[in-house]
Amino acid sequence: MRKILSRLSVHAYVALFFLVLAIVFYFLIPYQIGKPKMVFGRNLMDMKPTLFPTLAALCLGAMCVLSVINSYIEPEENPFKDMNWASFRKIAGLIGILYVFALMFEPIGFLISGIIIVGFASFYLGNRSPIMIAILAVSVPSTIYFVFIKLLKISLPEGLLY
Amino acid sequence: MLWDSFIEGIYLAFRWDTFGFMSLGLMLGMFVGALPGFTTVMAMALVLPLSFFMHPLVGIPFLIGVYKGGIYGGSIPAILISVPGTGAAIATTFDGPKLTQKGHGRKALEMALFASVIGDASSDIFTIFMIVPISMIALLIGPPELAAIIVLALVIVAAASTGSMIKGMVMATFGLMLSMVGQDPLEFMSRFTFGSLQLKSGIPLLPMMIGLFAIPEIMAAIERSMEVGVKAPPKDAHAGERLRFWEFKRCLRTIARSTLLGTFIGTVPGVGQPVAAFAGYAAAKNASDHPETFGQGDLEGVAAAEAANNAVNGPTLVPLLTLGIPGDKVTAILLGAFVAHGLRPGPMLIVDNGPTVFAILIAMVMANFLFIGLAYISIPLFARIVTLKRFYLIPIIIVLAFSGSYVSRSDPFDLQVLCIAGVFGYAARKLEFDVAPLVMAFILGQILEYSIGQTTNMASGNVFVYLFTERLSAGVIFALVPVLVGVMWYRTIKRRKRGEKLKSKVIGEDFA
Amino acid sequence: MMILKRLTLLFSAVAMVATLGSVTVQAKYPEKPVTLIIPLGAGGSHDMNARVFTSVIPEFLGNAMIVKLMPGASGQKGTARAIKSRPDGYTLLFTHNFIDQLQRHVEKLPYDTLKELRTVWKFNDADPIIYTRGDRPWKNMKDMMAYGKKNPGKLIFTNSGKWGAGFTAGAVILAAAGVKAKFIPYKGGGPARRALLAGDGDFTVGRPSHIKGNLRAGKIKVLGLAGLKRLKAFPEIPTFAEQGYPSTGMTMDRIIQAPAKTPQDRIDTLRTAFTKLYKAKTFKKLMKKIGENTKFMDGDEYDKNVRPKQSKAYKTLVKKLTSK
Question: Distance (Å, rounded) from C-alpha B138 to C-alpha B347?
Fold first, then answer.
């Protein structure tokens, strides 16, 4: 048993993760999908809304099992072996900035949150010239705002501006 | 009679205001298409009222110009900053950004331009001469046939994914699962929405695609800069280098194949450009003798995707012109434009207004040639943008990606989808999973479920019997699927055997 | 490189000045553009109607109206957003009667449109027609329904989606005639029409302006029109009422609504602007060009006379259709 486990790579664990998702999905089906209303005394569609989700879950499950077996037959290299953890931290930080932007977008408004995020991101990525950061932070969101709202009449959130 | 209309159409088409406004439309469309998230449908809807005040031979080519310009325009940010400007450019992000990193951004843009124009012009000319057969195909392709074609397409794409086929299938089936979140397309029952109104409308496609493809590219760029040190990329001698003729010639076969695929997909209403781009890419990769270079910055990949997605444009108009049926949102807007100008799309259109129709089609072909000139000049401008330093470029990309994702549905939830997809895409990249099958299965899964639901209703009983008796064409295509799977499996094994032989050869040499 | 930097600076300076300059100090409403939420997708008839009138309204309203498309969940996403928005007259909802009055009886909604939205203006309406293939043996609705009764389950109705505008018209007639038909859903009126022309269906619902071409070619026959009056552009199409079938509840009313608590003076300003708009020649010409009418109604009148009655009628309809 130990021998088998040691030969399982990261990829097998990933496959197991998806397998769990598939199983959860499968069991959620009866709870999350309702029964359609009948029209003229019978169902409008001969195909039930549960068919495809069931098929999808079963197929995913099958593929995951195959993937685990495959990972045992042809062990692949661990991709995390020589990973640069410093750059990973930087990337994680950037993802955090992105998520904050997503949350700020509507309440604070496109223009203001854009200015903040662009300035912060630029600094985070290594820009050290305060003048250039300021220019970049203000000009880019303003240009997009101008083009989208005034020229193209597409609406971006105003947020705190009004 | 038809020939006379055609000749008269040629005379009608060559007016200065038609060409003038078409050029304006092309440039406008290209600019708008280059803005991520701003779809060609939106652009056309915006200028539609303007076109009402023009003569039909000016207004309609103007709209068509916006449409065509937009399809190419979407590839500009796709190549330069790996954010697709339109859904059609998604397959261009496989090779485009890597080419830009190598300093070949301008080459990639030019290749995309030539491939797009050739694909578009060829399918337009094909459309003009084959208008009647194409409209018959459009009528023949109903839900069962569509379902069969989709299954075929899924197989092609799954087989062509980078890395192991099993991993591709895991991604594909996961994408299928994700497409089930939201309202079911047939009965509108909520599925896996957990009471949330946001999830009820399903996972939004464009933010998901931008997250899956663009954000990992940004992360990869940061990784690279951390390795070399945080300084600007060296002034590459290749930057701004033009496309060489021999590079272009090498891709001609791929462009031809993609054009055929795209034209065919264009005749099937309801499939669309993103699918055509994926299919063209997958087919090129499968047919190539060096599939490893695809996805690493191969010009052929860009050519394959771009020729295919533009080749869809011509045939898409046929159901509209000959039957009065809009196949997608773009043709829906064009239908409105036709009606507003007093033209009645349908079987009588060619009879009543033959010369006008042919004039519009001819103008469409001419638009391509106009476009080459106009766009070729603007490419160097665009290509320069990526020479900015990382801490300027990346924040710009971020803001563009976010505004693009927000604009289609005005829902901040879409931005969260963008971030989550970004994380997933980055993880997938690290774990060597290809997310293209996921996106394809996501798009196609919805169409497939819908078509099979319709087919089941039409069959009202045994579906298999129905497929092979009343809708033989669908049955035949379904039967082809296992055959195709077998062929691709065989090819993969053959390639692997060849790869192993090469490997053992190298090892042998080492020891010699 | 320097050129790029300088250009960016110049452009952003211009952009900022333009942006700031547009925020002029006006005490009057509307002092900034009004957002018009459309809970439907791009390219649809609402989008087109909206593009037309938003291009002309600024001169009557004093400021622009910006279209905001919010498709999703059969219109529920956009409707929910409009209801939750600030009732200050700067957010309006451009929707139709099926979303406003029918949906509530088909599924449980997290809001109550009748209570939380008030109608500013009924924009126009669209009477659907039912048409069939040119080669089918029946000449009018009665003949087709007779066939349907004799052959239950054989008559094929290609509709554009459950409980949508296309579906409702067909379902009402089928229910009234007591016919059991086969329903095949399609993604929109276009594909439903394709199916009909290809022979995969017997009848479908559509708009008169879209089928002119096929009608002339003889590929299709129009069996009837919803509503109570014949159309001026198509005087030969009889209404369903004339043929002894129900003729109401199938028409799509396009309405502009605002959150219920919006102050009355702002609603009055909007209504004045619309009244002036509907008298304008350019507007009427454009609407005619896209094949739409301008049968407007004042919002309060719609709220009083149409909404509650129609909603009750839909309740009965849904009950009837889903009970047997």
Answer: 13
Chain B interface, mutation test: which of C83, C107, C162, C210, most B Cβ atoms within 10 Å? C210
Same domain, B308 and B393: yes
**CATH number for the segment(s) C2-15+31-124+251-320:** 3.40.190.150
Structural domain ending residue among the three candidates B388, B407, B426:
B407
| B368 lies in the same domain as B490 | no
- Classify residue B182: in a domain, yes or no: no
B335 to chain C: which residues are within 8 Å by CB? 190, 210
Q: Cβ A70–B453 below 8 Å, yes or no?
A: no
| Residue that the structure tokens 């299965």 belong to | B441
Chain B: closest CA distance from residue A1 (Å): 24
What's the confidence (pLDDT) of residue B162?
62
For C261, list phi and psi in degrees, rounded to 5.
-85, 10
Q: Residue B37 domain-assigned?
A: yes
For C53-78, the pLDDT digits (tens) are 888 899 898 888 888 888 888 889 99
Domain containing B254 equals 2-141+201-229+241-407
Taking CB atoms within 8 Å and a gap of at least 24, the contacts of B348-355 are B348/C213, B348/C216, B348/C217, B349/B321, B349/B322, B349/B324, B349/C213, B350/B2, B350/B5, B350/B131, B350/B321, B350/B322, B352/C216, B354/B1, B354/B2, B354/B4, B354/B5, B354/B6, B354/B8, B354/B9, B355/B5, B355/B8, B355/B9, B355/B12
A134 at interface of B, judged by CB pairs closer than 8 A:
no
Tell me which chain C residue has its CA closest to the CA of residue B235: C1
**pLDDT of B200-234, one tens digit each?**
888 998 899 889 988 898 888 888 777 654 444 45
Q: Are residues B341 and B481 in the same domain?
A: no
Query: Is the Cβ pair C15, A139 closer than 8 Å?
Result: yes
Structure tokens at B308: 């295919």
The answer to whether the Cβ–Cβ distance between A28 and B38 falls below 8 Å is no
The per-residue pLDDT for range B122-155, each reduced to its tens digit, is 999 998 888 888 888 888 888 888 888 888 887 7
Lowest-pLDDT range of B261-275, C20-34, C88-102, C115-129: C20-34
Q: How many domains does chain B have?
A: 2
In this prediction, residues B375-398 reach a mean pLDDT of 83
- If asked whether residues B254 and B398 sit together in one domain, one would say yes
Residue of B445, B217, A140, B172 whose CA lies nearest to C15: A140
Domain C129-249 fold: D-Maltodextrin-Binding Protein; domain 2 (3.40.190)
User: How far is it, in rounded angstroms, from Cα B53 to Cα B51?
Assistant: 5
Q: A122: which 2 tokens?
A: 């630029």
Q: Do B371 and B471 belong together in one domain?
A: no
Q: Is residue B489 over pLDDT 80? A: no
Residue C26: pLDDT band by 50, 70, 90 thresholds? very low
**Is the CB of residue B208 less than 8 Å away from at least one CB of chain A?**
no
Q: Do A156 and B403 touch (CB under 8 A)?
A: yes
Which tens digit of pLDDT belongs to each residue from B14-55? 888 888 899 999 998 988 888 887 788 888 888 888 888 888
Question: Do residues B214 and B305 both lie within one domain?
Answer: yes
**Distance (Å) from the C-alpha of residue A128 to the closest C-alpha of chain C?**
17
State the DSSP code for C313: H
- Locate the domains of chain C by residue range: 2-15+31-124+251-320, 129-249
Q: In this structure, are B471 and B344 located in the same domain?
A: no
What residues does C118 pair with on adjacent strands?
Answer: C258
ipTM of the complex: 0.90
From the list B46, B191, B431, the residue facing A53 with the nearest CB is B191
Nearest chain C residue to A139 by CA distance is C12
For residue B354, being part of any structural domain is answered with: yes
d(CA C106, CA C99): 10
Tens digit of pLDDT for each residue in A4-47? 666 667 788 888 899 999 999 999 888 888 888 877 777 778 88
